[in-house]
Batch of 4 targets.
Target 1
Amino acid sequence: MQLPLFYEALVAEKDSLFSLSNETQKHAIQVLRLKEKDAILLTNGEGLICKAIITSIDKKQTIVQIDSYERINLFEHKTCIGISLLKNPSRFEWFLEKATELGISTIIPIICKRTEKQHFRYERMKTILVSAMLQSKQAWLPELKEPILFSNVLEEHNYDLKLLAHCNNSERKFLNNFKINQNTILLIGPEGDFSEEEILLAEKNNYISVSLGNNRLRTETAGVAAAVMLKLNN
Amino acid sequence: MQLPLFYEALVAEKDSLFSLSNETQKHAIQVLRLKEKDAILLTNGEGLICKAIITSIDKKQTIVQIDSYERINLFEHKTCIGISLLKNPSRFEWFLEKATELGISTIIPIICKRTEKQHFRYERMKTILVSAMLQSKQAWLPELKEPILFSNVLEEHNYDLKLLAHCNNSERKFLNNFKINQNTILLIGPEGDFSEEEILLAEKNNYISVSLGNNRLRTETAGVAAAVMLKLNN
């Protein structure tokens, strides 16, 4: 895909003419200096990629004509990472970018007993996902949930395999030994790890304790390492 | 290890008394407010961890008495990542931090045909490695080389398995299918990837072309994903 790719949540196969959002118009026309008759790609972040031709440009709006479609299927199983918010938001943003590049399907920011920071700027985080998706030329935008309490994430029902990564000395299986052949959710705790009570509560809720290896990793590093392993075995 | 861990390149088993470096002294005494008789851990970044007791504190120097030793062996094979410098240094620094946490043994910044940035602040990068080593409670500091030209990295002789990660459509084996049971070097290119000529040159020098998966990853993401896979199969 050599054509520039843009995110348009509302673009749909049926459309023949489509008016670009302000953001796309600004980037395509003012930054990239695209002209009428130039071709671009649009994705709705849900597997649809449209090739479109710019038909008219004016200050108010830029109209493109949808030329052809491609549907990218998500053949793999759903992979969800629930991860504690971090005191340093840029570390959390790094995780979001990398998880998107690696193709994780759902991200749930969680608030644990030892989570230090609970403020979360949803719109800013969303834009990080979008640019990571575009930069890595993907057509699927990970679903980003609003932060929820640890006890509530345990009630997520859409996953068949439920994993809890922690450094507690209890018996843990190595994540990389799991074949991810079903919808899977994996939880990662804050700096300082999950509390004993949280680990017990998760295990009561059919979560399996897993290890990410011998090294002691920062939360966002654990998140990226887990994303790599989940995708490797998917 | 609950005691605070500090880096002292010069600490050695034979020492009974040791004078802390200014940096360690500042952190231990001014930041952590440690007092005489408090215990700390010192590592030389080469597998040695010493438990030491603070015996005297004054403005000029802080003296500790080495109490006991532990030697952490690197039983695994050497893993080296040669990776292009990046236009955005914070992305390169992020890679250095994560590669250290994950336990990569050697990092070689490389300058390729399409490398955009060639400036490299060695001392700053070294401090990032040190704090990542301490933060992840490790006793081995990765060896950080000065940046070298791509053609020169091909002459590194210390590795039995030589891998080149790129996105070119030529035939590539999946990195995760390699058993890393020998000293291994893996090269990762800049944004825009290695040039055709660089790929051919590497293959002439017994490098095997590998893939890191189906997704198109940023250079630093590729570096971290590769680090995870190298350690998983080590």
Target 2
Amino acid sequence: MSDKLVIPARRGKAVIVNAGQSIQVINTYGSQVVDAWIYNLHDLNEFQSNEHTRPTLLKLSFEPGDSLYTNKRRAIAEVEQDTSPGVHDMLMSACDTYRYELLGCTEYHDNCTDNLHSGLKELGFESNETPSPINIFMNIPWTQNGSLSYEPPVTQPGDYVQFRALMDCIFVFSACPQDILPTNGIRGEIKDAHFQVL
Amino acid sequence: MSDKLVIPARRGKAVIVNAGQSIQVINTYGSQVVDAWIYNLHDLNEFQSNEHTRPTLLKLSFEPGDSLYTNKRRAIAEVEQDTSPGVHDMLMSACDTYRYELLGCTEYHDNCTDNLHSGLKELGFESNETPSPINIFMNIPWTQNGSLSYEPPVTQPGDYVQFRALMDCIFVFSACPQDILPTNGIRGEIKDAHFQVL
């Protein structure tokens, strides 16, 4: 088991997880959304894809026992455990500079899209795509008529989700810097999160 | 107004629609799903993106009056009219060779992903991405607990959706060749659809 490693507040972090290893993503302070992407270590043109996962799961989100699928429809990781209330999002794109401009920012705002690419770069990788992320701990409820809203996380400090890699993977995380919407709690405080490879 | 042009059953077709022009996508025989993509004519790295549209619309699908947004969060088209019951899908990826292999096909099966790229190629364009499509007339109901299912379309012959281009666009359509699931009706009969530029 590795030490707990930090996903610094507002920043991205990537880690290689080999087939058969598990990784816990920990909401250390209880209110932090962690955007996550999973790439095939040996072919970064293959990556976890929400729109390819939904046709197989026939679900809007995931729960323990579910696998997550790539854009080539192969299972890349399995959800092994979830100690949180199980509220996660697979609908919303990663935040980006365009998003923060529309939200009124006139200067650069940290964002999950840039964090994905800087996290990959730190490990020497590059991706031309920004797949739609798994927004772990993010609370985007839907209604029967299809309305969506941004709500504060319902997690507690220490809640974690554990994934098992089904192929050699790169997991990339971003401690989402969204401090304008209630994505990371109504106070918009952005915190560190952690992960641990088992 | 152009003539009605065919989207041949099982095939893709692309068309340039300039800013301010409108285009009707017509379910001629009443049961045919039409996958659709919209690219910025002047920069194919910008395209309509479901995961970037949802954060702005705060909806799982669209209705008249809504705009559709690109991966750069710009409005690329507006939904002007919808004479169908308004059941469309923005959750499921385009079908592809991997999908049909998993559904048991041992030989090549026509698919919307290949149709996207062949449609573009016929006009001399190329895209490295397969964005998550707008699946016009596709019936993927969701439940309050997040379950999804593939159901037959609820459209009538001649139902159409009309979009107005907000920038110079390439619209690409695929008359979805899914004949294994009830996507195109319980009999799995794949039909022509049509479009008309106004």
Target 3
Amino acid sequence: CRLDLSQTDRYYESVYNPCEISRVYISNQCVSSATPTEEMNGAGNLMDFLDEPFPDVSTYEDFHTIDWLREKSRDTDRHRKITSKSKESIWELIKSLLDAWSGWVVMLLIGLLSGTLAGVIDLAVDWMTDLKEGVCLSAFWYSHEQCCWTSNETTFDDRDKCPQWQKWAELMTGHAEGAGAYVLNYFLYILWALLFSFLAVSLVRVFAPYACGSGIPEIKTILSGFIIRGYLGKWTLLIKTVTLVLAVSSGLSLGKEGPLVHVACCCGNLFCSLFSKYSKNEGKRRETLWRSFFAALVAAFTLRSINPFGNSRLVLFYVEYHTPWYMAELVPFILLGVFGGLWGTLFIRANIAWCRRRKTTQLGKYPVLEVIAVTGITAVLAYPNPYTRRSTSELISELFNDCGALESSQLCDYINNPNMSRPVDDIPDRPAGPGVYNALWQLALALIFKIVITIFTFGMKIPSGLFIPSMAVGAIAGRIVGIAVEQMAYHHHDWIIFKNWCRPGADCVTPGLYAMVGAAACLGGVTRMTVSLVVIMFELTGGLEYIVPLMAAAVTSKWVADAFGKEGIYESHIQLNGYPYLDVRDEFTHRTLATDVMRPRRNDPPLAVLTQDTTTVEDVETLIKDTDYNGFPVVVSRESERLIGFVQRRDLTLAIKNARQKQDGVVSSSVVYFTEDAPQLPASNPQPLKLRRILNLSPFTVTDHTPMETVVDIFRKLGLRQCLVTRSGRLLGIITKKDVLRHMAQMMNQDPESIMFN
Amino acid sequence: CRLDLSQTDRYYESVYNPCEISRVYISNQCVSSATPTEEMNGAGNLMDFLDEPFPDVSTYEDFHTIDWLREKSRDTDRHRKITSKSKESIWELIKSLLDAWSGWVVMLLIGLLSGTLAGVIDLAVDWMTDLKEGVCLSAFWYSHEQCCWTSNETTFDDRDKCPQWQKWAELMTGHAEGAGAYVLNYFLYILWALLFSFLAVSLVRVFAPYACGSGIPEIKTILSGFIIRGYLGKWTLLIKTVTLVLAVSSGLSLGKEGPLVHVACCCGNLFCSLFSKYSKNEGKRRETLWRSFFAALVAAFTLRSINPFGNSRLVLFYVEYHTPWYMAELVPFILLGVFGGLWGTLFIRANIAWCRRRKTTQLGKYPVLEVIAVTGITAVLAYPNPYTRRSTSELISELFNDCGALESSQLCDYINNPNMSRPVDDIPDRPAGPGVYNALWQLALALIFKIVITIFTFGMKIPSGLFIPSMAVGAIAGRIVGIAVEQMAYHHHDWIIFKNWCRPGADCVTPGLYAMVGAAACLGGVTRMTVSLVVIMFELTGGLEYIVPLMAAAVTSKWVADAFGKEGIYESHIQLNGYPYLDVRDEFTHRTLATDVMRPRRNDPPLAVLTQDTTTVEDVETLIKDTDYNGFPVVVSRESERLIGFVQRRDLTLAIKNARQKQDGVVSSSVVYFTEDAPQLPASNPQPLKLRRILNLSPFTVTDHTPMETVVDIFRKLGLRQCLVTRSGRLLGIITKKDVLRHMAQMMNQDPESIMFN
């Protein structure tokens, strides 16, 4: 799921909105060191231009990087205007208050809409997932659970067997049991799955190509200040919501959490466009998007906005364990951490390799076919195994759950000792029954299946999240380990390792906790979140007692995974697609200097610059025609090469067009000047054109001896687009964000051309 | 509790360690654009200096700001050296591994030591607090609780009455009851309190003045990159630990959480000094300190490292409520939020005003007297009221607790309806008994008392934390509101507001929850943490169900408080003491330009600069003698004023001293040059002195037109000490962090001279 960035090969970009600068002049007569007279004619000269602002000034082109400093100062400016105005009239005051509150309003709206969507998606997925197996006679739009909820079988294990709910075979042939019925159900299950996934992939293909994948890598890039038009658009929102439902219910090994985050960000973008405060300022917009990104990331796990069964829990998988954990258990927990790390590494390596192959070979040309094939294989292999047939989140919550007395599931088929009178809350460890051993086998198969299929699923041209599948892998592994430890502890109380903490007849080991820890470890291995992950796991399960086991596992898995490669799955995909993303985490430790990175290189043509008062309109126009740079430095003179400012291509074009129309006497041969006062010219010359107002007088500069380490830091922390390189006041060259990324790639022995070209 | 920063009136500070630069040269022959020959003689010339590095290079003076970029690049450099070395031998490899792990080791050690200290302090405080009332006959070092723990009275309400524990009066006179005994106990209580606080304040005065206050404002400043020698020293650690115990047990209205954070940071500093990786690099040291700061901030609330009664809860006040909360209850919750905000504002304003008075008037001259007086007043007023007599954290946990069936406390004196057979878990709302009404009065008095006395207590010359007192205020108010709502709901089921959620005989209202919410609100109002605060409250109470009430209250209180003033108590104290702290949160929105802030001002003497190849040793020495600047810009020539670099005062001094001793032929009249090659001089001249190696070739520059907003951003994000101001390559002036802070103060209409002068 990648973008074509080939059109971004421009490397001069401007820093300030020219209108800002001139306003600075006017607004600062009080404090500015410039003398009032300067101010006056400075202001006077450009009044005629100020009252007709450039139409598309301050907008960025697609696939370009925004300039954070500039956006920030523009917002400050706007804010200043509003506050000063608000004193004039009640109406203005109200408007300013509204403006101040718009942030909260936007967040509220985002919360409501994305929450609702999440809820709707939940319900739709439940229904369609069950639709693959059967239908509710009382009301076909009921899911299996809803359908039987109304029935009068109340005991727990009969709840999912009720007359209203009929499997397809039963409905069509009348026979609920038997090989024939089984085969028919199997067949229809596969058919539904193929139908759903086909619809999903075709919708994405036709209407919104950006709707595929989890979207998190792209959103991270966008948040870091990159423009991808339409990626958060209305169409993407609509299509992603629909196709997400289809994809999840088709039974593919993918989760809906990641895409939900994308959906939430689309909502954010939608509501941003309602308020000029955000729609007109890419920086502010991203602030808001970031909030909704984060909120959604947590919400995806915690809040179940629509909850038909009204259990008041805020958490997705609520667990309540009755036993504490013991120091000795840290060993298996840490082993699970190691497993998580290894799984993370394996998954990332394999998935990236597969995605690269998809991009480079014929495979990429037949996305629909690919999806169909994978869905088919998944359905065929998944149906026979009860643990892969059901939806993954159901599986996880069963694995997390402790075996109460009333549990009917296979996993809880323990041999109760007779003299235990009534089911009490904390049941002592018991020997496992045949059901448990049977379940262990099925879980082992499910584990292998999930591991393999997920690698091929993530990255197909449909909405696909990663959290739930990797959690499933971890939960399965964890549960298996948990049961193993539990049985060992039961059968070998006398072993040294158990003696001092597990007396006979006590409830020592909670397999569900192991599943939880395993899930955390695997999620950590894939995404490389540790602390935030553990917090999420709290939210997820409400288990505040288990911070130490979770932490231990999460940290271990991060260490193990980092040992094989620093990048998480999202960073890897960002790199694979060559997005211009400057990761805060990866340190640049090489000792190169700015002079090694700046353009022009030794054999390049010299830097394209303007002089402050000797260039003619014609020269400028040819320069614009011949080059495709986004901006040009302005120097005192070609001899001295002393930098005075930076001018943006678009502004230059507009200003000259403007002048040619409005100002008579401006011809090709008339001189363009950026100084305060017009240069002394012979009377014969045509009227010169003053362009100081579009000159950015504070371009960012570093000396050629600045270590690249520092330069990278500056780009990262100040969010620059480019900065100029000087030596003792002389302009030598320019470094853009892209040059920096290229250089970093080069230093990491990657192909520098991969950046933004794929 | 402030520092004398008067000696910091120097405003030129250097950016790079010169040795770095030269190493850059040598290590980059491969990539550097400089020609090999340059490299060689560049390297050659300075070899003789490199093998004898300057003794105290890269160290900062006291009360100076560190340069983050520089520290970072120094660490990178060190890291690079180690990794390259590690390939040489096994021993080096092991050393590099140790180095890589030292971070974890340090954190582990810090955790252990500060955890132990926290535990010891806990126990000591319990003991000494009870010592004010009586003594344990079986073992005088037992606290009241421990003393009676061993006794055989097991029923809950007899637990604190046991023969081994005797109040002083009983011990001395034999009479436990009666007015005489009461007066005697009262008297001794006051006496002990005075003794403790006197010891505390005198110890602080004599041994470690830095041990006073909560320490958080200073630590925030230190973490932001400021040097305060000894503030995290061994003595401070020792004295603060001891005096903290004394101060808390003296019964003053102060908490130990803030000071514990200071103690933890002292531990951090202590262990940092064991590893050169941290001791030699102020940046890395601060990273570590920041971790322990954060860890301690959470740990102060959560982990009870030594827990004599072995309840396995990780949290300080564990609460378990059996009822959910209802939408309608959000109204009182939000009202509590408003109260919290108002309390926060009132407290900050009053406390700051009082501290300013202390600083400016005679009052400040008699800290001991002040402490004694406040202690006396506190003790006299606190003893009669049971809710102020006991330790504040006990009070809070009682207020948080839900009234179980076995509760004996006054607050749970409800009238049980007879037909309730046995005490069940969730008790329906009941009418309040006389005890409750009595308690309400006492709580109201306690509330007023706490509010007033805390204002005068915080900021005295003893260790004093703020979290517990402000939580107490909130908890009291919350509990009062809670009981009020509960009784209303019980007596007026029919009212509209209760009808739809509170049936008769149901358990609708949980007063303890109100106390919790109130505590969060007040803490939020004072410290202005919201999210982090809510997280802490989870940790504090383990109540994950109550995120919405807590959030509502915390956010409301922040809004209300912010409406009266953006700064929390810590920021206010930082400002009061004029620490050089650049707060990330406060936006600089004024439209001033760099040229308005830079030195020299219009009427100042010109900038003190060196020229690259015309200054003589004598000139330099006079310049150093006449000025006290920390560094000097180097320009091509006084005419062109083109900036080529920046040289640090100390390095200059050392280099010349060095040269005069080692290099013969270097005399006062010999020329100092910073260029690659020696200038052409008549043969008669003495041998010139090359100083390029101490020249920082990449000083940070901005143009004079750069908006201050941007400059502030740069200082904040890059952690600069100063940056040079140029116009078209000409050096105009310099801006230091202090200038920036001064300017910001000025713009906020505060006295700019307050910065670092108090």
Target 4
Amino acid sequence: MIKVVIIGSGSVAQHLIVAFRNAQKQENTVDLIQVFSRKKEKLWHLIDSTKVINEYDELLDADLYIIAVSDNSILEVTENLTFKNRLVVHTSGSFPIDELNDSNRRGVFYPLQTFSKNRGVDFRLVPICLESENATDYQILNRVAKSISNSVFAINSNQRKALHVAAVFVNNFTNYLYQIGNEICEQHQVPFEILKPLITETAQKIMVLSPLEAQTGPAKRCDSVTIESHEAFLKDENHLEIYKILTQAIQDNGKKL
Amino acid sequence: MIKVVIIGSGSVAQHLIVAFRNAQKQENTVDLIQVFSRKKEKLWHLIDSTKVINEYDELLDADLYIIAVSDNSILEVTENLTFKNRLVVHTSGSFPIDELNDSNRRGVFYPLQTFSKNRGVDFRLVPICLESENATDYQILNRVAKSISNSVFAINSNQRKALHVAAVFVNNFTNYLYQIGNEICEQHQVPFEILKPLITETAQKIMVLSPLEAQTGPAKRCDSVTIESHEAFLKDENHLEIYKILTQAIQDNGKKL
Ligand SMILES: NC(=O)c1ccc[n+]([C@@H]2O[C@H](COP(=O)([O-])OP(=O)(O)OC[C@H]3O[C@@H](n4cnc5c(N)ncnc54)[C@H](OP(=O)(O)O)[C@@H]3O)[C@@H](O)[C@H]2O)c1
Ligand SMILES: NC(=O)c1ccc[n+]([C@@H]2O[C@H](COP(=O)([O-])OP(=O)(O)OC[C@H]3O[C@@H](n4cnc5c(N)ncnc54)[C@H](OP(=O)(O)O)[C@@H]3O)[C@@H](O)[C@H]2O)c1
């Protein structure tokens, strides 16, 4: 059994605890022996309270320490660790591996998904991006990751950064386009609900078609009559600017084909 | 039974034929008596070939004619109709009701979804936006729409235009953000597959949270360190420009709260 400790009690830490708990019911690869949380009671609904600690010197000997704290606290946490030469990884999409304190063997265990505290996630579908400094550590990370997910990838820090930037486009920016859709609906007293099946289908299409194949609409068709009428319709300067830039980009993209 | 004729044989026409066929198995509200297709054989896999015609003077007497042809042919089709004072609607998100030929009673039957010929759609989940010039016609449209969908709305031409513009943001522009995500992955040799669960979750979150509540990421957090590092990372001018504009918009939006 691989002994694992989680440090942190936020969204990612909580989803990892649940994922390891579920995995332990199925197979005996990983044993989650301890979780560090500044506020111990935060995790009592998820794990046996005797396993939750809030002092660094209480940390047990383990094969893997997963630090799932806010990006700007990762370094501080690694500096608080009193032991040396153990395998210590973080869960961040943007923190480079070589900025971790080097008293321990370093690695990354990045689950590429957007987690919220109140939403369940099927962790078996969450891609986990792994990085380590040596092959033996990679084997440990790989076994731990595969115990909770069907989708495990070796990703170096530069690739992880690319994924993190790409995730901003497909998640944060996409959500902001939903926000604009919502604003346009509110301005004209139509329920945003009407757009929801379209939002679902747009995301589902991409599971089977490439985005290039899935692209439709007035910009793709270079339908200048519709584009001009939409531009005349948009009274919000911000909506109009974004409409113009994305329309132009789709048209330029079409020309590249 | 309400007698319906469809004019057109593209994506929307074909999905409507299937939807009416399914509805007729359940209840006897609507009878699809005829379909007009310039190329008759295009529809033989979907409907009894005796019901498919390609001459306007073969059109039977019906309670409702649904014109599902390309936007720039709608007017031409209405002008080809030899009868008068019957209920004639189109399926377009952007064509105004009063630009239809006025020899017949006019209306709109706009299914707000993105249809592709090779993808099945559960029509019961497709919102249908209805408009008519009088209340009696609205009752007919409403009964026909409800026979195939659980989601039927009275939407005037101005609201329909708002929905169409909003649909461009949540569908066409969102798909283009997927395209950028894909390009960033390709440039750094990571599989776009890794982002797909995130794309799914981003769309699903919006079913239960407002876009404002669902917004996360460096722009929302005003995390200037991450934003600057992403901007330095993006070598493609077009990606960078879109990154900057959407980041700024999300930050400005946060300030409005
Ligand atoms: N959320 C996501 O969607 C997501 C996805 C992939 C990766 N990640 C990454 O996963 C990591 C954790 O993110 P999260 O979303 O779980 O964050 P979160 O929900 O905001 O939770 C942050 C956690 O960090 C702890 N913490 C902060 N400063 C600390 C310190 N100095 N010492 C000890 N603990 C400290 C907090 O403890 P208190 O509760 O005591 O304040 C809290 O448990 C980050 O690196 C993030 O980039 C997040
Ligand atoms: N696709 C969508 O996602 C969607 C969603 C909502 C609403 N709509 C609206 O639904 C309508 C149809 O769109 P679509 O996607 O089904 O289009 P489509 O797949 O491109 O098919 C267009 C159809 O129009 C026919 N047509 C074109 N010019 C014609 C003419 N002069 N006379 C007779 N038939 C003519 C074509 O016949 P041939 O096969 O003989 O060329 C074809 O059957 C449009 O108003 C569109 O805005 C589309």
